[in-house]
Amino acid sequence: MKSAIIFGALASWSLLSAAPDAASGPQVVLSDRAASRLLDQASWGPTPAAIQEVQEKGIAGWLNQQFQLNTSDIPDQLLLDSTGKSNNDVTPVQRAFIQNAVTGADQLRQRVAFALSEIWVVSNVSVRPAYAFPPYWRLFRDNAFGNYRDLMKAVTLNPAMGAYLNLANNNKGVPAKGTAANENYAREMMQLFTVGLTQLNLDGSPALDSSGKAIPTYTQAQVTDMARALTGWTYAAAPNAASKVNNPAYYFGQMIPSETEHDTGSKIIIGNTAVPAGQTAEQDLDFVLNTLMAQPTIAPFVSRQLIQHLVTSNPSSAYIARVAGVFQNNGQGVSGDMMAVITAILTDPEARAADNPNLPPNPGFGHLREPLLFVTNLLRGLNAALTSTSAVYNLGSQLGQNLFAPSSVFSYFSPMYQMENGTPAPEFQIYSTQTAASRANIVNAAIFGTLDKNTKLDYSEFLPFASDTASLLDHIAYVFLHHSMSLELQQAATTAVNAATDAQARVQAALYVVLTSSEYQVIQ
User: Fold this and answer.
1) Closest CA to 379 of 33, 44, 43, 38
2) CA 500, CA 513: separation in Å to the nearest integer?
3) Which of 289, 409, 441, 521 lies in the 20 to 30 Å Cα band around 29?
4) Cα dist. 288→24, 116, 128, 163, 227 in Å?
5) How far apart are CA 413 and CA 435, in angstroms?
6) How many C-beta atoms lie closer than 10 Å to residue 357's C-beta?
7) Mean pLDDT confidence for 380-396
8) d(CA 497, CA 352)
9) 242-265: b or e for each residue (b if 16 or more CB lie within 10 Å)?
């Protein structure tokens, strides 16, 4: 099996063994720093129990276990509210998502699914019915470790995406009437979901023509023909409703072909590829998907974004090339193997370099905790107990990331956003003076007050260390900072702790200083 090949290669790393081998002698046990860093990249945040689990299993063992888990779900929502109107309240969906992130066992699947949903965007801003979102979320959960091509088809035929980017009821053009196929999905499918605007080399750098100019991935004419190839899909008929050529919106199941509205003419799409005439809607769709998967640019384009969401905002060209190479070929001639791609991202030497505390830090590595990662990491590290009415789902929106409601198809923030010096830093697009203050306010409420009356936080595990400042800071660093803390932060926290009078106050002071620091806000 492909996983056996992947993990067989990983087994050569001595750090990945967490138990002695009788034949070769004791192996190096994975450090808590390495385990914690992996969890910050591959989960919703480290906890002492999770750190110990990774140490015991090793990275390969933990990944293998996570690849087998498929446990978290978001319950279906009612179509109508109590007044008989459309149920547009996504609050229960948001609550279930946060509950899963904080307590679910399938941490890696959830993290990857969320990263994929930030690429393939559907937003409650315009798709209003709440019942549209659990089925859409499940597509990413179920395909997180599958094949990217399968994900592409599943999302394309999802009715929420059909509504959001106008693929549903996208009828063929009638020249005599001056109508044409809607190009919205065809354009965004290429620009945002698969290949981007510019052809890329394997390492993510722009491919250049003989005059040194970047080569576009597609032309406007190809967008038009791609839209024609994607005509003829409608919503499935609701129960007890007769199916029509153009069915009204219904968000369960997947869209169905409406062949009379499919353009069967020949088309020229991306890569100057000719789509044969006379094909059905599904044949044309499959042809489009296969053509996109065959584009050399898709591997670095998708790989770069997944690296950004999981590990670092500014991956080196070599890092991108290594992961993109796995996207192109998992070792068995298969492209788009997500399990292989995720393994490559998380075990790459660049991702694991800082596991060694003796190496000099790389200030350009890592990424700002996007709001939902900040919130869930805080909740997990403080052993939060959530109820069905906890309001912490809303904390992300206070920080600029309203779950399931990104402001546009470009997601909560653009993967192309850069700092003023040109350094890629996507999460900083929604980081402002206001949201920075809101982060501190959330930490303050968590430590000194309550986030809400239905969410209980527990920092009792820090109390046994309260009498000794060094031990207290060491344990906080273990839970929240990969067991590492700069001298400057130690001094600031020590000053705050020593000014407190009792055990609880000492713990609160230390946690507040650490959790509002830049060392915590940025994952390295």
Assistant:
1) 44
2) 13
3) 521
4) 52, 20, 29, 20, 10
5) 14
6) 12
7) 94
8) 33
9) eeeeebebbbeebbbbbeebbbbe
What residues contact 7, with CB distance under 8 A and at least 6 apart?
60, 63, 64, 343
* CA atoms of 282 and 288, how far apart (whole Å): 10
Mean pLDDT estimate for the chain: 93
H or E element, residue 234: strand 233-234
Task: Calculate the alpha carbon distances from 116 to 143, 309, 393, 481 in Å.
Answer: 10, 9, 20, 26
Q: Which helix (H) or strand (E) holds 455?
A: strand 455-456
- Spatial separation of the C-alpha atoms in residues 127 and 508, rounded to whole Å: 42
Supply 205's token pair: 């750098």
- pTM for the full predicted model: 0.93
Distance CA 485, CA 517 (A): 11
Tokens 């081998």 belong to 21
> Averaged over 206-225, what is the pLDDT?
97
What are 216's strand-pairing partners?
Answer: 198
Cα–Cα nearest to 254, from 237, 272, 230, 277: 237
> What residue segments make up the domains of the chain, in order of their start?
2-355, 367-523
User: For residues 352 and 504, is the Cβ–Cβ distance under 8 A?
Assistant: no
**By C-alpha distance, which of 458, 493, 498 is closest to 474?**
493
Q: What was the pLDDT predicted at 363?
A: 84
User: In the predicted model, is pLDDT for residue 263 greater than 70?
Assistant: yes
Structure tokens at 90: 């996504």
Find, among 181, 169, 173, 141, the residue nearest to 255 by Cα: 169
Look at residue 357 in the predicted model and tell me its pLDDT: 85
| 335 backbone dihedrals φ, ψ, rounded to 5° | -100, 155
| DSSP labels, 405-431 | --SSTT-SS-TT-B-TTS-B-GGGGG-
Mean pLDDT over 418-432 rounds to 93
Q: How confident is the model at residue 360 (pLDDT cuts 50, 70, 90)?
A: confident
Chain-centre distance of CA 314, in angstroms? Answer: 16
Tokens of 261: 């509205």
Phi, psi of 232, deg, nearest 5: 90, 35
Terminal alpha carbon distance of the chain: 33
Write down the H helix ranges in 144-219.
148-156, 159-164, 184-191
Closest to 197 in 3D by CA, of 182, 184, 209, 214: 214
Burial call 277-313: b when 16+ CB within 10 Å, e when fewer? eebebbbbbebbbebbbebbbbbbbbbbbbbbbbbbb
3 state SS for 195-209 = CCCECECCCCCECEC
